[in-house]
Amino acid sequence: MAPSTAEKQEHSDKERASHILRLPLDATRVDREPHSYERWMVAKLMRMAGSPPICFRLWNGDVIPPESGEARFTLYLADPKALYSLVANPNLAFGDLYSAGRLQVEGDLAELLETLYRSVHAARQKWPRWLDTLWRNHNPRATGIPEAKENIQHHYDLGNAFYQLWLDHAEMQYTCAYYEQPDLSLEQAQLAKLEHVCRKLRLKPGMTVVEAGCGWGGLARYMARQYGVRVHSYNISREQLAYARERAREQGLDHLITYVEDDYRNIEGQYDAFVSVGMLEHVGKDNYAALSELIKRCLNPEGIALLHSIGRNRPMLMNAWIEKRIFPGAYPPSIGEFMGICEHGDFSVLDVENLRLHYAQTLTHWMARFTENEDKVTDMYDAHFTRAWRMYLAGSIAAFRAGSLQLFQVVFTHGDNNLLPQNRGDLYTTPAAPGEA
Amino acid sequence: MAPSTAEKQEHSDKERASHILRLPLDATRVDREPHSYERWMVAKLMRMAGSPPICFRLWNGDVIPPESGEARFTLYLADPKALYSLVANPNLAFGDLYSAGRLQVEGDLAELLETLYRSVHAARQKWPRWLDTLWRNHNPRATGIPEAKENIQHHYDLGNAFYQLWLDHAEMQYTCAYYEQPDLSLEQAQLAKLEHVCRKLRLKPGMTVVEAGCGWGGLARYMARQYGVRVHSYNISREQLAYARERAREQGLDHLITYVEDDYRNIEGQYDAFVSVGMLEHVGKDNYAALSELIKRCLNPEGIALLHSIGRNRPMLMNAWIEKRIFPGAYPPSIGEFMGICEHGDFSVLDVENLRLHYAQTLTHWMARFTENEDKVTDMYDAHFTRAWRMYLAGSIAAFRAGSLQLFQVVFTHGDNNLLPQNRGDLYTTPAAPGEA
C-alpha cells in the first residue's frame, strides 16, 4: 500500500532533518585513561574561554575542575575525539557534539551557555588573531535567489505540525514577541507585537501594505482584520504559505490578503507601508543595497517602512553551528550595517527600538513548550534532532541574555516626507496586548 | 574715560562678530548692462540647481525668469562680482553675499531656501563629480582641544545678552525643543525636551549624571531640581558657564551641580548617566572613537547614556557657509556614523528617536523672536551680523524641513546590562510639557 500524503510528508521531513543535522562520526564510547596532554587541552580551552565556572567530566569519569572557584555546571565528554573536535572548532563542535549526545550538560543549558557567552565575549579581546580566524565561521551559505530558497526551506519547511507544538496558538509567530508587561502569556505578547508593529506603521483602513517574508501569515491577517488594510505578503516557504492561505480563507480575509510565493526581490507595485518582520536575518549583507533600492521603489512618497530583525552591537559572523545546522545563510546585521540599508536609500530613520530581552523571554516560552513536547518531536524526527533544537533554543536564550544578539525594530520613511507623526505617544495610549483570553 | 566692563565686552563681541562674518569685498553697485555670458551663467546655475521656481533680478534691473513655470521667489544680485562668486562657490557665497547685502531675497527666506535645498538635493545626483568637488566645503576647521575652544568661543561667547533676545525664557535652551503637542509655546516645548531627556535616562533621586557640553546649564538645573540627581556638567564656553553658575546659585541648586570649565575629553569619574545634548555636532568624526571610549569608561555598569545631536540621513560635509561663518568645525554625523560611536564601544542601542520637524518648529520660534529684535541685534553688532544670523536661522529651518538635517536622540547602555526598562511606555504616561505658565 502506498503511503498517504501525510506519511510521505513526514518521511521527507525526517530525511531533511536527519540529512543536515546528523554528524558523520558516530559516538564511540571509550574508557581509557585520558593522556596528560588531553587534560592540558581541556585546561587551555577553558582559559581561552575566560575561565568560566565549568568543570569537565571526561569519558573515564575523571573530573577537571575550573581554574578557580566552584563549578556551577558540568560538561561531560563521552570520548577523546569529542575533545579534539571541540578544540579544533568549539563554535561548531559544541552544538554538533551535544546533538550527537557526545557532549552532555549537567545544569541548566541556557544558563550554562549564557555564562559561557559572557565569559568568551570578555576573553576573546585577548585572543591572538590566528585563533579568531581559526574558530570563525568559514564559508557561510550564499543568499542569492536559488540559495535563499534552499536556506529557507531547510528551516521553515520542517513541517507546520512541528512548529505548532511550541509556537503561540494565536498567530504562529516565529519572531520576537512584545512583553509589554512582564507577565503576559506567549499568545498575548505575540498579539501585542503585531499590534505594536501596526501602530508603528500608522495603518489606516484602505491602506495598502507589502510584507517581505510573512512566515505563517499572521501579521498579514492581523493587519487585514484589525486595520482593514490590503496586504501583499511574500514568502518562499511553501509549507508556511499553504497554512497562511488556509487560515485567511477560514477567517474570511482572503479578499484583503494576497499571499505570493516568490522571493522578496520580485516585489512589484507601490504601497503605503513596507513591513518585514524576521526576514532581514536571511537577506545577507551583499543584498542590503538591493533591498534598500527595492523599498525605495515600492514605498509611496508618504509611506512608512518597518524592518524588524535580530541584530548585533557590532559586526560579527553568525555562530558557525547555528549558521550551518539551523539557519543556513543567516547573518544578523550590526546596528551600523542596519542603518547602512537606510543610508543607501537616503531614508530618514524615525525610530529604533531594541527588544533584546523580549526575545529572551519569547524563547524561554518557546523552550518550555518545546520541552513539554520533546517526546513528540523525537517521534516526528529523532533524538539527534530534538537535542539539536534544544541546543538552538537554549543557545538563543543565552545569546539574547548575554547581549550577543539584539532585536531591532527600525521605522523609516523617504527623506523628504514631512507627514510624520508628532511623537510616539500614540503607540502607548492603550495597551497593545489583549486581555487574557 | 575708560570704557566700563560691559562696554568693553560689547566692543569685543562686535569685533569678534565682524572679524569673522564680514566679506573682504565691499558691495560695489554698478548699473552697466549684463553681458550675454552673464545671463548664460545665471541660467546654467539655475539648471544645476534643478530649475527651481526662482527668478533673478540683475544689478541693472534686468529680470531672468525661471526655466519653466512661474517664479515664487526673486533673487536680486547687486553687482556682477556677486554673480561670479555665486557661480564659483554657491554654498559659501550665497550666505556671504546675503550677509553683505549684495544678494537680496524677495519672498520668505526660509521657504526660498527649502525650495532650493529640495531642488538641489534631487539635481545633484546628476552633477559631474568635478562640480561636487569644486563646490564642496574645503578645509573645515579641526576639532582638537585648542581648536575646539576657539570654535566654541566663536559662536557661544557672542554674548549672553544676544542669545537672551531670542532663546526661550525658561532655560535658555539652544537645542531642539520637543513639541509634544503642535501648539506648545517655545518655553513649554523646551521644558518638555528636558523632561523627555530625563525620562529617557530613567533618573532617580541620588543618581549621578555627567553632562558633556551644557550650554547655559539648563538641563543640569532641571535634572537637579526635578529629579534630585547630582550633576557634573562640562563646557568650554566661559560666557555660558558664568550664566549657568549664577542661575544655579540663585535657585539654590549649587550643592547638586558642578559646572566644570573643561573639554569633555577630560571628564573623569563614573556616573549613573551620561548625557550630551547638542555637543556631538562639534566633536568631529576623528574624535568619535575617543568619545565612545570616554563614555565606556565613565558610565556605570548599569548606567544609561543619551546623545542628542543634529544628524544626516547619509554622510555629507557641513554646508560651507555654516561651517566657516557660523559653526567652525561643525559636522553632523549620518545615522550610520552615529551608530559607529555605539559600535566602537560595544554599546547596545536601546532607542533612537528622530525629532527633525521639532527642530524646524523650534527654529521657527527662534526666528520670530529674532526678527522682532533685529534692531537691537544691529545695535549690538551691525547690519551684516544681523543678516548673517537671519540667513543662518532661515537656512536651518529650511534644512530641517527639506530633510537635509535630522535630529537624533540616541539612548544606549553597556552591552551586557540586563537592567533595562520593560518598554518605552513610561515616557508617555503623563505629558512631558508643563501647562501654559
From TrEMBL, chains A, B:
CDD domains, alphabetized: AdoMet_MTases
Keywords: Lipid metabolism, Methyltransferase, S-adenosyl-L-methionine, Transferase
A biological process term (GO) from this entry: methylation
Entry annotated with the keyword Transport: no
Methyltransferase keyword on record: yes
Annotated ranges, domain DUF7884: 43-121
UniProt GO molecular function: methyltransferase activity
Pfam families on file: CMAS, DUF7884
SUPFAM superfamilies: S-adenosyl-L-methionine-dependent methyltransferases
Residue ranges crossing the lipid bilayer per the database entry: none
Family: Belongs to the CFA/CMAS family.
Listed name of the protein: Cyclopropane-fatty-acyl-phospholipid synthase
